[in-house]
Write a structure and sequence with these properties.
Blueprint: H1 2-21, E1 24-30, H2 35-44, E2 51-57, E3 62-67, H3 74-82, E4 88-89, H4 92-95
Antiparallel strand pairs: 1-3, 1-4, 2-3
Length: 102
């Protein structure tokens, strides 16, 4: 019985590790400036194909997106954020040059 439980545990653990290894992360810097901007991104980005998780940071003006590279790529994710009327860059210093559009 112990061997069966151990085998099941091993399979579950291995499956979760494999699922995590099929993802990549990308960080963008976005010209949002308030909680409403964050909510706009948080409402829309989860619906993009391949997005597994994301974390926004208002103070750091960033979004870190975990995604499945078989379903999407950084350029598609960048365009999805830009469609929300935001400027998106790869550096914090660059985003500071852009004032919010609203």
């Amino acid at each position: 019985m112990k061997k069966i439980i151990f085998a099941l545990f091993t399979l579950v653990f291995a499956g979760s590790v494999m699922a995590q290894s099929n993802t990549e992360k990308v960080t963008f810097y976005v010209n949002y400036h308030c909680g409403t901007c964050i909510k706009k991104v948080e409402k829309n980005i989860p619906h993009e194909k391949g997005v597994k998780n994301f974390k926004t940071d208002l103070k750091g003006k960033s979004i870190e997106i975990t995604y499945n590279p078989k379903q999407t790529n950084p350029e598609k994710l960048r365009k999805a954020i830009e469609k929300l009327d935001f400027v998106v860059t790869n550096s914090y210093e660059e985003i500071l040059k852009h004032e919010p559009k609203h």
